[in-house]
């Protein structure tokens, strides 16, 4: 030990048996020492990290491209339209406006869907419509085929329609049939449930055999009526 040095300390010129810091080259790389393998990666000039030094994320396999001829790439050609009409007391003028605009809407939708194989149209109210036909009165989501006795309604028996079901098709006189069914009146509950009514109308319970919105699902449709 040289005079003036502390025990346990070593200078860069000492040859002690303890591990030494690896010298650094002018390019910024170090030579292995102690437990190093001696194989180190050189940093590019300027001190930037290698391009692959960042974290690696497992993103899974890239999805296969859609086959142009597959079913997923084909447009929907069997269309179902569900109208949820508010039959609470404040909606009389809105129902009049809806009915008045429907012929133009039907004409334009038929032009737009000229390649469609079939079109189904149904109407439900925003409550458990008591003026519907007796078999389905007081049932939330039941398609409207009758409006007799409702205030401000068409006050008529509108269906069954040409399909024999509770929905209209292109075989019906759509402006006339829709005008009848959509004028559900304005004496319904003020506790409107439009989302619940729509979900019930499209759900499996009302669509089951013998139920109010019975349908056949042997055909692929956007919705199933």
TrEMBL record:
Region (Disordered): 1-73
Organism superkingdom: Bacteria
Comp. bias regions, Low complexity: 1-30, 43-52
SUPFAM superfamilies: vWA-like
InterPro entries in UniProt: vWFA_dom_sf
Protein name: VWFA domain-containing protein
């Amino acid at each position: 030990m040289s005079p003036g040095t502390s025990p346990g300390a070593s200078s860069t010129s000492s040859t002690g048996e303890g591990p030494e810091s690896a010298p650094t080259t002018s390019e910024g790389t170090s030579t292995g020492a102690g437990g190093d393998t001696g194989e180190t990666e050189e940093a590019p000039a300027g001190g930037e990290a290698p391009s692959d030094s960042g974290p690696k994320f497992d993103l899974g396999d890239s999805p296969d491209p859609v086959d142009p001829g597959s079913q997923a790439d084909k447009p929907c050609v069997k269309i179902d339209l569900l109208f949820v009409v508010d039959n609470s007391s404040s909606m009389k003028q809105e129902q009049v406006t809806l009915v008045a605009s429907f012929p133009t809407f039907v004409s334009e939708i038929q032009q737009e869907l000229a390649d469609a194989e079939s079109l189904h149209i149904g109407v439900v109210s925003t409550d458990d419509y008591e003026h519907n036909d007796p078999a389905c009165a007081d049932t939330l989501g039941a398609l409207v085929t009758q409006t007799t006795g409702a205030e401000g309604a068409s006050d008529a028996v509108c269906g069954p329609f040409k399909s024999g079901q509770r929905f209209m098709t292109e075989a019906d006189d759509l402006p006339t049939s829709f005008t009848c069914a959509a004028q559900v009146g304005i004496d319904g509950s003020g506790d409107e449930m439009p989302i619940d009514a729509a979900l019930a109308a499209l759900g499996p319970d009302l669509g089951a055999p013998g139920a109010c919105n019975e349908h056949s699902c042997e055909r692929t449709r956007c919705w199933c009526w």
